[in-house]
Fold this protein.
Amino acid sequence: MFWHFPESVEVVCPDVALACISSEFDGILLDYSRQCATLDTLKAKFSRDTEAAEFAKGRQLRFLANVDPIDVARNITGLNPETTLVVVVSKTFTTAETMLNARTLREWISAALGPQAVAKHMVAVSTNLTLVEKFGIDPNNAFAFWDWVGGRYSVLLEYCLFLCNMVFAVVEKFLKGASSIDQHFHSAPFEKNLPVLLGLLSVWNVSFLGYPARAILPYSQALEKFAPHIQQVSMESNGKGVSIDGVPLPYEAGEIDFGEPGTNGQHSFYQLIHQGRVIPCDFIGVVKSQQPVYLKGELVSNHDELMSNFFAQPDALAYGKTPEQLLKENVPEHLITHKTFSGNRPSLSILLPSLNAYNVGQSLATQVRKQLHASRKKGEAVEGFNFSTTTVLKRYLEASGDVPKEDCTILPKM
């Protein structure tokens, strides 16, 4: 579904609250956690995008999902009810946590502006327009969608409402990116079909090799919410122990998804994935940084330092390190067993050209379709890596080139 909003429309609600609650303009978005996880993921991805950030300037978006009153208080702190729009996102308009949060914000608006203000400061995204009207929201201010669309798959529908604080030009690129993956999924042969291959890898790792978990490891801080989003998409979609016919499965199904942006995760749980349980890993890297920084006197840019870790980790998982190698490195004998890691641990690497709206749409659609199918010098040879890592590294070097110092931004002053 494509929307168009005239760019000349005056923004009178700089605050938007989304009630999952999910939120922001000055706005609060209310919904239960699945949509909030999705939209918070998109917000984090677009937060450093130059075009999106420019369109969203002067507006803030907040997401409220937890029924814990602390979360409610945290989300409304600093907001002016008079300039806040609350978007209640509920497919049935009956989800207990969402509706309690919605009633709480309705009271917040009523106490400040009077009951008559509710109809002008709250809108809904729902399939149940009868309950929307009964709640006190004008049905003309409700965005309907089909009742057969699961919440975790609905970000490309009316949930794109929150993206309108970046105007339709950005939304359209996001939707076109997702559409390109849809077309690829429907037309590409299985052996070249990215969502199909990713889905089959998950089935192979979980149901055949017996690996219960997957680590999602984006080497981009803007993707910090990506792993929680995929947790919800994957573990809610494939989290049952019975078939579609209700028959108990004779094998384990569904994977435990978790993750953290690199390099944070390296200091958190990477020792376990190198030396403990075997956990297949998905590494996600970006060629061009949204915030390039090159410090005078440093051999590489900050982004290249980050990406050197992106390329090194899959290789370390594949090759490991033997006791013989450690002895040659003069590691004390009593530490040999502690520093040995076996290698032969599965991972895959995904390299995005940049983290713009189009590529974000592609990355989200790829994961949805997957679930549905269940020192650097230009011109130097790339050596010392396995074939897969070498191929990805060559692509990175070809696409990025040496970043001119004048093209690198300085971090904004605090």
Notes: Residues 287 and 353 are 5 Å apart (CA to CA). The chain is about 40% helix and 15% strand.
